[in-house]
Amino acid sequence: MRKVNSTNLLGALGRINWASIESTNYQAYINNLRGIGCPEETVRDIIITDISKLFAKRRAALRAQLQPYKFWQTGDALQNDYSSNPDLQRQLQELEKEQRALVKELLASITAPR
Question: How far is 46 from 52, CA to CA, in rounded Å?
Answer without folding.
Answer: 10
